[in-house]
Structures are given as C-alpha cells and as structure tokens.
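Regression report. Comparing outputs from two consecutive submissions.

Submission 1:
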Amino acid sequence: MLQTKRFAQAARLYRESNPQIHVVLLEGRNDEGSGLSSTGSSAGDFFIYKTDTESDFFRAGLAAAALDMDKNGIIAVFLESGIEKQAKEAFLRAINSLEKPLETRFFTSFSDFSEIPGLSCVVLAGAGAEYLEQENGVPVIFMTWIDPFLVPDDVAIVVDDSPWAQAVEAVRMVTAGIGQGQIRSKFYILKKNIDKEVLHKL
C-alpha cells in the first residue's frame, strides 16, 4: 500500500515535468488495495488500472472444470490471503454454474495441504507453488509471471497478469480516456498434455 502511494507520488512528479506523456499505474490483484482506485487521482495525473480478479477466477473456475474431464473429482485452489474472499466467491460462482458442480477445497498455505484422493485439478494463485515439486500428473492452472515455456509439465494453463501482458489493453484504455479500470489477465493454454476434447471446451 505504501509502495503504491510512493509510485503515485512519483507519477505526479513525472507528469508535472512531462505533461505531454501519459502515466499509468498497474495495481495488480492485491485486493487490500492502495486506496487510489477509490479516491482517484487528480485530473490528468495518471491512469490507474487493476487486475480483474473476479473475471480471472471465474474463468479459472470454468477452466478447472474443463480440465476435470468429467472425472467428478476435487479441485484444490491455493490463494494468497489478500485476495481470498473475492477470488473464492468468483471461483465458486463459476463452479456452481455447472450442471453438476465439482467439490472445491481452498488453501492459503501449502503446509495446510495433504494428499487428496480424486484430485483432478490444482489452481495456484500466489500460494502453494511447492505443489509443483510433486509432478504427479494432475493438471495445474498457474497464475504467474513466469514464461509459459519454462513451467513444469503438469501446468496446463498459465494465467499472466504481468505488466507486459496488460500493456496493450492499458494503452487502449488510455487512448479511450478511461481513468480507472480493470484488465483481465492473459490465459495461455499449454496444449502438450491436454486432450483434444478438453481443448475444445477451453
């Protein structure tokens, strides 16, 4: 929060010295927030965009159900504590929209996790990265800035909310004069270990 406010101060100073250049702050998916999005910036200071956490986790829920491949298994979701409430609600909304909702278990730490019989998909969102060391063949949705080509074989989908992934949409929003808004992350489907039918669903 303090760091974001420092960025805001730097943005204002930069804007004062370079009024012809637009300045954008990307807040990421930290649900605790900096207070900037709610109070806004002075007219023309800078643009503020945040990761669309609700959309990302709703889409992740639908993707996890597709990766389940009709096994009617259990989905494990690891969440960082700052986004837990909003992310959990969005994920469950997606799961509960299905004809036959799947069981979902949420964790905020890998230490709370133990082997789950019938596990069909794992979502890693800021917590639980240690799970990848197991390499047990369960498809993983990994929310990360890591290059999709560098992730372990169990990773089926990479959800990228890095500044580089959001840059194009941010420029479009600046051009449209949108002072504040949310940007959906990029979903990269890694086809190497995914069934053709599942690919079609995704």
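Submission 2:
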Amino acid sequence: MYTETSKKLFEEALQLLPGGVSSPVRAIKPYPFYTEKASDSRIWDVDGNYYIDYCMGYGPLMLGHAHPTVCEAVSEQLLRGWDYGTPVKMELELARRVQDDFPSMQMLRFVSTGTEATMAAIRVARGFSRKKKIVMIEGGYHGAHDAVLLKAGSHAVSVPSSLGVPDEVVRNTLQVPFNNLDALTAALEKDNDIACLIMEPVMGNIGPVLPEDGYLREVRKITQENDVLLVFDEVITGFRLCIGGAQCYYSVTPDLTTLGKIVGGGFPLGVFGGRSEIMDIVAPCGEVFNAGTFNGHPISLAAGLATLNILDEEGYKRVNGLGDLMRRMLSDLIQEFNIGYTVQGIGSMFQVFFTDRPVRNYQDALNSNAELYKTFTNLMLEQWIFLPPSQYETNFISLAHSNEDLEWTIEAYGNALRKLFSIAELPEGY
C-alpha cells in the first residue's frame, strides 16, 4: 500500500514539521499517505490509489467529500471576497438555523474551531457563576487548550497531560468517570466552587462510548441540584446523531452547548451558545471576553449553511441505517471468527474495540489492545480502506457512502482479521 511518493514527501516533511505532520493523529507509521484529492466516500493519494474513507476529516464531512452544493456555495462566496472584518448576513442565517435545531442555544457566537468554542464556554460558565473550578469526564476531549489537558486518571491531584501546561492551570479542573453517577455526585457535593461540568454526551475521542440508559438525565438533575452549569460538547455529535444533536436524541437540555465539525461543512468553524441570561455576559454586552479575526468567517458560514440545508430527516434515516447495518455486519463477522472483540457505536459512528469487554468509560477503553489495532488499520489500508489510525478514535459514515462501500469494507475486515491472526501474537483470551 505504501507509496514511494508519500515516503519521499514524509522524509522532507520531517525536516520541516515536528514529527512530519501538522497534527499528531496524522503520524501513521511508518509514514502517512499524502492525499491528492477526495470525492464522495473516496480519498486519493498522490500516486493515484483510492480508499474508501471512514475518517472523513475526523467527522465534519457528513455529506461526503467535495459535495457539489457546498463547492458551489464556497465558490460563489470567494468571488464576493473572503474576509471582511465586518458582520455578514450569513451570520444571522446560520445562527437562526442552529437556534432552530438547538433550542437550548438561545444566543450563540461563531468562532473558528471546536477548541475555541469549548475554551469560551468554560470561560463563560466561570464568568456567569463566579466560580473557578470545572469538572470534565475522564478521557473526554475538549480541544487543545490548557484547562482541559489533564492526564486521565488524575482524580486526586490534577496533572497536566502536556509539557508547557503549568500544574496550577489544571488544579481547578477535576475529573470523574463516564457513566458513573456516584462519582459525579460526590465531586459536586464536595466542592461548592464548581462552575460547570463539560462533557461529550457520547464520548467520541476514545472511540464511540455511549451513555447508559438514564445517565444523561441524571447528570442534568445532579448538576441542577448542585447549582453547576451543564455544558454539552457536541463538536462531534452536533448534527451527527440527528438534526438536534445528542441533546435532542436523548431529550436532555444543557445550559451551554459547543458545536464544530459538521456545522462548518468541513471548513473551520466552531459555535458556543446557551441560555440568553448566560450569553449576555459575553463581550461586548458583558465582561467575558471573546474575539477573533476569523470569527464568523464568510467561507465557513457559506459551507455550513449549504451543508445544513441539505441535511433532513430522510438523510439521517439513511445514514444512521448504514451505521446500524455496519455494526450488525461487524458483529456477525466477529462471531464468525469467535473472537472477543467489541463493536460499538450509534447513528453513523462505529468502532471495533480490540477487547472482549463492553467499553463504558475510559478505563474500559484502555483494556483494548491499541498496538494490535494499529497493525489492523495498516492491513485495512492495504485493502484500500482508510480508518482513523488510533484505537481511540471513531469511524464515520457519510451520506456519500453506499451499501456497496460497506460490503467491500466488511470483506476487508474479514481479510485483515485472518491476516492479523497469522502475523500477530494475540493476547491471552483471543
């Protein structure tokens, strides 16, 4: 599968970029393939090979690659200019659309990334509550800003997960396990200086891990009882599970919401918003500062509007049906091989965990054989299937994927598992 052109490009990149990449997850061993173009459900490398893509830009491309309607909207906007430093009408159009689909977002602001959205939401929660501390879910991912870069499992004393983050920055960030109401209750009742709980309603950055029945409703109840704001990070799940995201799917209303990925149609865009009384403290109305040269960028707004205008109930019915089919076929395949791997997901999200136990939180995910999974994804690349290269990521299906794509993929899964057994020393119990 590996191509000489990609190898040469990566050798050059190692002299220019840290690790040869612009984001760590792209550092596929021994080297990544370099993309030339993409269309629909397929992505082409620089040597002309194409792959069925389940990475899909790590989630934004709900319509598939290079959707013509999005291309047209972006092209038309380019002809009118692409950076004004002034308000634009599309801000209102996209804001109304988001507000219609997420009624909890009575007021909102556009930023450039999901990281900026979660960083701003935490600042707003602190400013509104006049409290310092936040709680996040162990293994949750809320972008690359200092306050949320904790080593998972550091419950007694918060420890930064990155050099360059001072210990004192994360002292005000606490962690609790997912799907554990007792731990959450204990944390909130113990400390009256907690501004918010920020969480992914469906965990996406350790692979798709679902909330247990009633968990999110109880989380809402516990936060209200303890006067703690609830922030749903729906950067992944927003417009992914259904039009109204996870909060609509599970009928749970947060105080603040962050969006990204799909809402920008594959272009850089983040959103944070919530109840009007909370958002009224954001500058210039209030004293919580947020600003950005590229906030409400016209190109991203155009792509987002074009994308959301295509998504409808029938589209979700189809793409979520493909997700159901994929998970069924993967489960049947694993039963055929009589191995203890676990298939999980929801809607158009799926993953095979290389563990024989259901994954309900971060510690369960750590039981997976991550090294074996890396070998497996390379075997899938050899059969022209591109999966996110980490066990702790999520695979995404788009509206551009077909039943034939899924059938080809299942055949590749079977071939890869057969080859994996012959080249890998499996852990005890497999």
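Expected: both submissions complete independently.
Actual: both completed, but the second showed a warning that disappeared on reload.
Relevant detail on submission 2: The first helix runs from residue 4 to 13.
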